[in-house]
Design a protein that fits this description.
Its main location: cytoplasm. With 265 residues, the protein is of the alpha/beta class. It is built from 11 helices and 8 strands. It binds 5,10-methenyl-6,7,8-trihydrofolic acid (MHF), 3-methyl-2-oxobutanoic acid and magnesium ion. Residues 46, 49-50, 57, 139, 141, 150-152, 182, 202, 214, 216-217, 222, 227-230 line the site of 5,10-methenyl-6,7,8-trihydrofolic acid (MHF).
Length: 265
């Protein structure tokens, strides 16, 4: 296996080949996932929930992220490592560059930011300075207090129109990847087709170019009630490697996510 890059994912999109990605927070899982053939690993700020036990991702700091990015990058043999920028660490272009510096110097290959058109200048500035960017739209968990809970986004036509124009703005700013979280499958299909960059979905149906799953959901370790769009693959006598292989197979052959893991308009 060779190192996965954005061009690898671009090629998958062109070829209509679905790809599976996972979150990772330490070197051991990063190594196992990478060796099992997962080409992209996200050091998600979900670590605030699945590692630290918080109710949401708001308490996570840049230092927390940098610590886990450093561990994951040591274990991620061939995988592209994406690091989440945490809550309020990218409020201005300058602060965005400072946060990105810490995460890239800790070993990330790309940073991910939650938000739409308002991030245009920051994303353009990052890419001009050599930092690859992944966008994140829909249910952006850092806005959970604004949304009033972890709720499906984009069901109203006005919201759906805004999400599509935000996605186009992120691509125009230079984002090379996009995550769509918890939106109706129909809207995810429209956005995926409208963009030339690869789109990775979670709770966005099987219509996106790739899928992402929080590793704790994959192996049945979710603290509390697992999200509807997630699936425990550590079943049927499988070990962790077997669960990862079953997840990759299910994404590649289009059987995961099914309608029971997806939302409609
Ligand atoms: N374990 C875990 N899995 C995740 O996918 C995840 C995290 N943690 N932490 C960070 C964010 C938070 N996410 C979440 C968490 C809960 C729901 C949830 O409970 N959603 C409802 C849908 C409600 C509706 O229909 O509007 C659900 O039943 O799935 C969604 C996304 C996704 N991310
Ligand atoms: C759920 C994914 C997309 C994420 O942002 C995270 O794990 O923090
Ligand atoms: Mg996140």
């Amino acid at each position: 296996m060779s190192k996965t890059t954005v061009s690898t994912l671009q090629q998958y999109k062109q070829d209509g080949k679905k790809f599976a990605t996972l979150t990772a927070y330490d070197a051991s899982f990063a190594k196992l996932f990478s060796e099992a053939g997962v080409g992209v690993l996200l050091v998600g700020d979900s670590l605030g929930m699945v590692l630290q036990g918080h109710a949401d991702t708001v308490p996570v700091s840049v230092d927390d992220m940098a610590y886990h990015v450093a561990s994951v990058s040591r274990g991620a043999v061939d995988a592209l490592v994406i690091a989440d920028m945490p809550f309020m660490s990218y409020t201005t272009p300058i602060q965005t560059y400072e946060t990105a510096t810490k995460l890239m110097q800790a070993g990330a290959n790309m940073v991910k930011l939650e938000g739409g058109e308002w991030l245009y200048e920051s994303i353009k500035g990052l890419t001009e300075r050599g930092v690859p960017v992944c966008g994140h739209l829909g249910l952006t968990p850092q806005s959970v207090h604004l949304f009033g809970g972890f709720k499906v986004q984009g069901r109203q036509q006005s919201q759906a129109d805004k999400l599509l124009s935000d996605a186009k703005a992120l691509e125009a700013a230079g984002a090379q990847l996009l995550v769509l979280e918890c939106i109706p499958t129909e809207l995810a299909a429209t956005i995926t087709q409208a963009l030339s960059i690869p789109v990775i979905g979670i709770g966005a149906g099987s219509v996106t170019d790739g899928q992402i799953l929080v590793m704790h959901d994959l192996i049945g370790l979710t603290p509390g009630k697992p999200p509807k769009f997630s699936k425990n693959f550590l079943t049927d006598g499988r070990d962790v490697r077997g669960a990862v292989a079953a997840y990759i197979d299910a994404v590649t052959d289009g059987s995961f996510p099914g309608p029971e893991h997806s939302f409609s308009s």
